[in-house]
């Protein structure tokens, strides 16, 4: 099995910063395109950012210029640096992992990010 675990969430003020981490473990032969999603109460889970195997990243319009996704293949880690946070960023953030030849998709348990004064 493959597992991903998020960490780094918390309460921050508007304009603040937070870095989320996603640690992958298990039977990983390759770590493919990885992503971050978020879900606010009463809303659908939405795409935030993704990064492919060679570091090409894509962002949702709502976070462009504020968030940065990165990865460390050797450590099997993915990060989401969040700057200039807004109350609208408040959500549970999930790491989406894609692994191995079969493209196994694995979701983390989520980490709460709350942006509030």
SSE order and pairing:
Blueprint lengths: L1 E6 L2 E3 L5 E9 L7 E6 L6 E6 L5 E3 L7 E6 L4 E6 L8 E9 L4 E4 L3 E5 L2
Parallel strand pairs: 2-11
Antiparallel strand pairs: 1-3, 3-8, 4-5, 4-9, 5-6, 7-8, 9-10, 9-11
How would you describe this protein?
It is a single chain. By secondary structure, the protein is mostly beta strands. Helices cover 0% and strands 54% of the residues. Strands 2, 4, 5, 6, 9, 10 and 11 form a 7-stranded mixed sheet that branches. It has a 4-stranded antiparallel sheet with strand order 1-3-8-7, with no helix packed on it. A hairpin with a 4-residue loop joins strand 7 (67-72) and strand 8. The termini are far apart.
